[in-house]
Specification:
- The chain is globular.
- The strands form nine sheets. The protein has a four-stranded antiparallel sheet, with no helix packed on it. Strands 4-5-6-7 form a four-stranded antiparallel sheet, with no helix packed on it.
- The termini are far apart.
- It has one domain: Methylamine Dehydrogenase, Chain H (7 Propeller), CATH 2.130.10.10.
- The chain is built from two helices and 34 strands.
- The chain is mainly beta.
Length: 408
């Protein structure tokens, strides 16, 4: 990239991120202008009977018979006929959900009554990631067809399609503006200005699929990890690699890195690897602060707590480890009956939500290690979930082709 091109993209990144938000009144005005009130009705939640009578048990069709399964959900969405790989919740209106899966479609639907609002099509292969922009004004979907498509949330108006990467693995919106990242199997990360779809940068530095990544909470850096056992901290304006850790360092990972998360202060990263370890890393210096070792198999998911110096790691060994980030010691070991697929802390809370191939979703108090809730209802592995900012609603996507809604 030439010096003139670099200056251009740095200026464009600043303009795209800073010019549009985030002022609460402006966001509210945009949502009202888009007719957002048509979908929004969070005040009328009611009790479990109001959600369609799912609570208790429901009948599901087997190969040759109809069986009854325990079902703790209060609502469900059943339009997907293939595994649901991705689910996201509107950032301010927890009843608005988008899900995408193996049927090559995304659907916008309501968590309170299961009503389908819109179908978002145009992909020609499985959808692997869906994400709302920071204000909720836009929805992005990424698929194995290498396409990223963006719509307006409240109207379903199609905005743009961008191509370039190979199969999309993950998407992430900038925390302060309409800039979208996509990580792909071809070792690249792409960045666009939305909703125009204007190309902003491409990040080259990995040598294998970019398994996880995203913007730091302050929006000033990008952190990504790869199957090539590398972690890179990027400057989003210039696409320069600021920090790079590789498997050549004996202290770092020796096998593919599957997961990464950064803390609320944008100072630390935690990784999860197929080698069964996590590393705690200073994002500014690249120093490996600690190696966190309490698992016997691949670590698939990691997360930081917003309010206490805690982190969580989830593994194929059926365990979740709760780590003290300051002492680097395990505080609690939590157990599922099968591989742990995703862990996520409730925003500004010590509570942790986990899902597993054991078909359950669980809510934990990480201070005590107590399981507060165990939700059942899926017939197959729970592949992911979204949780509301207040922690009272969890929406899941499963290998059984359904989405379920659970209430804390």
């Amino acid at each position: 990239m030439s010096a003139n091109q670099q200056d251009h993209y740095e200026e464009e990144f600043d303009d795209t991120v800073d010019e549009e938000y985030l002022v609460a009144d402006e966001v509210a005005e945009e949502e009202e202008a888009d007719g957002g009130e048509e979908y929004m009705d969070d005040e009328e939640e009611g009790d479990q009977e109001e959600y369609g009578g799912f609570y208790g048990a429901r009948e599901v069709e087997g190969d040759d018979s109809v069986m009854e399964i325990a079902d703790d959900s209060v609502q469900g969405f059943f339009e997907h006929k293939e595994p649901v790989y991705a689910v996201a919740m509107h950032p301010t209106e927890s009843n608005i959900i988008v899900s995408g899966g193996g049927d090559d479609k995304s659907h916008i639907w309501r968590a309170d009554n299961g009503e389908k609002l819109l179908t978002l099509d145009g992909h020609t292969d499985s959808i692997t990631s869906v994400a709302f922009s920071v204000s909720g004004e836009y929805i992005a979907s990424g698929g194995m067809d290498g396409k990223v498509r963006v719509w307006k949330t409240h109207t379903g108006e199609f905005c743009t399609q961008v191509d370039g990467p190979d199969e999309i693995i993950w998407l992430d919106w900038h925390p302060k503006g309409n800039v979208l990242l996509a990580g792909a199997t071809d070792s690249t990360i792409w960045m666009w200005a939305m909703p125009s779809g204007k190309f902003m940068n491409i990040f080259n530095g990995h040598a294998a699929p970019v398994t996880a990544g995203g913007f730091t909470a302050d929006g000033k850096h990008i952190v990504s990890v790869s199957e090539d056992s590398t972690l890179i901290v990027w400057d989003p304006k210039s696409a320069a690699s600021l920090v790079k850790l590789t498997g050549a360092d004996a202290r770092f990972h020796s096998e593919p890195i599957i997961a990464v998360a950064t803390d609320k202060e944008s100072n630390l990263a935690i990784t999860g690897s197929a080698d069964g370890t996590s590393k705690l890393i200073n994002l500014h210096t690249g120093n490996i602060i600690a190696s966190l070792e309490n698992h016997s198999d691949s670590i698939e998911t990691v997360a930081f707590c917003d309010v206490l110096p805690l982190a969580a790691t989830g593994s194929v060994d059926n365990k979740v480890s709760i780590w003290d980030v300051q002492t680097h010691r395990v505080r609690h070991t939590l157990t599922h009956e099968d591989a742990v697929i995703q862990v996520k802390f409730v925003a500004n809370s010590v509570n942790l939500v986990t899902c597993s191939a054991d078909r359950t979703v669980r809510l934990w108090d990480t201070r005590t290690g107590e399981c507060l809730k165990k939700w059942m209802g899926h017939q197959d592995a729970v592949l992911g979930f979204a949780v509301s900012s207040n922690g009272d609603t969890v929406v899941t996507g499963s290998d059984d082709g359904t989405c379920l809604v659970f209430k804390a």
